[in-house]
């Protein structure tokens, strides 16, 4: 196994633990920020769609085992990796840091919205209307994850990607 693969798997496990035991408790109108979606989107943007789907599947398996929703979590995280992989920026591209950041933010918003859409279609623990679950909680999830992604990009990714 390569060093980056092991590092990404370790970071994925840590992000799943933070999500399930920490961030899932911080809710606003029944919606919490999702660090795993942000992480899967970042992996998909920088490594590609297939790798993003693979890490999405692994994230879904791990977070599903920790939370008790294995099936829906597997499906949601794999779709998030697939959708955000459309924003892939090849390593040898001549994209600027601003362009790479914009693609990351777009990937986070798309992954958050479509992940929330799939999750909302199959799971309704609070008995909310479909409109509320898709539109209101979807928009709120996208905004929370985008803020998380901006913080991640400013604090960590910008320094490592510029090298």
Structural features, described:
The structure is a single chain. With 163 residues, this protein is mainly alpha-helical. It has a single domain, classed as Arp2/3 complex 21 kDa subunit ARPC3, CATH 1.10.1760. It has 6 helices and no strands. Helix 3 runs antiparallel to helix 4. The chain is globular. The relative contact order is 0.14.
Can you summarize this structure?
The protein has helices at 3-21, 35-47, 49-67, 70-84, 97-122, 130-161.
Topology:
Layout: H1 3-21, H2 35-47, H3 49-67, H4 70-84, H5 97-122, H6 130-161
Helix pairs in contact: 1-2, 1-3, 2-3, 2-4, 2-5, 2-6, 3-4, 4-5, 5-6
Feature tags:
163 residues; mainly alpha; Arp2/3 complex 21 kDa subunit ARPC3; globular
